[in-house]
Design brief:
Length: 209
């Protein structure tokens, strides 16, 4: 059965399991989402479900987007995402929420990680840095040379160097669902998920479970 939701990260907390152990939990406000389109192998060449999330004012959307949603008498929705699946079992216009998932299930949560700006090699790639003695004065956190001499005589593309850190797509895999609150549209997963509070996240059934 199709299982997928769009949501926003609320933040982290902790809950206690039946043995009294404290579990780090990320709360996500997931859905309600609406099925805006079904992609089928016969027509589009692949099978997927397109979901819409978060109602907005009509003036926030282009005319084509509004027309796309009006086909199924849906309100203007800010976010549209596709979920590849072979077992659809939903219809266009349907509403889906956190009740798709149950406590104990495993999920994958994708989002955009926090942007850290420009970072050096020590922070970005955990370089050890230079020696702290023997005349060292101002290169403790320097990356050192990685161009060598005659061979290769240059720095290879893709080498680990200082640069922009974070603000990339990340997926936290195989997280256990520990809380499902259908009344508040909240789902809690054991562990951390990418992004800052309020960041958009995509919840999928785990590919590894």
């Amino acid at each position: 059965m199709f299982k997928g939701l769009i949501g926003k990260k609320i933040g982290m907390t902790q809950i206690f399991d039946e043995n009294g152990a404290a579990l780090p939990v990320t709360l996500i406000e997931a859905g309600p989402c609406f099925v805006t389109q079904i992609r089928r192998v016969e027509t589009e060449g692949y099978s997927a479900v397109q979901l819409g999330y978060e109602e907005v004012k009509p003036k926030r959307l282009a005319a084509g987007e509004l027309g796309h949603l009006k086909r199924n008498n849906l309100a203007p929705l800010k976010y549209l995402k596709e979920f590849r699946t072979k077992d659809i079992q939903v219809a266009e216009g349907d509403k889906v929420d956190v009740s798709l998932f149950a406590v104990g299930e495993k999920v994958d949560v994708a989002g955009v990680s926090k942007g850290k700006g420009f970072a050096g090699g020590v922070k970005r790639y955990h370089f050890a840095g230079g020696p702290k003695t023997h005349g060292q004065s101002d290169r403790w956190r320097g990356p050192g040379s990685n161009g060598a001499t005659t061979t290769p005589g240059r720095v290879y593309k893709g080498s680990r160097r200082p640069g922009h850190m974070g603000d990339v797509a990340v997926t936290a895999q195989n997280l256990k669902v520990v809380l499902v609150d259908a009344e508040r549209n909240v789902i809690g997963v054991n562990g951390s998920v990418p992004g800052a509070r309020g960041g958009l996240v995509i919840i999928n059934a785990s590919r590894k479970s």
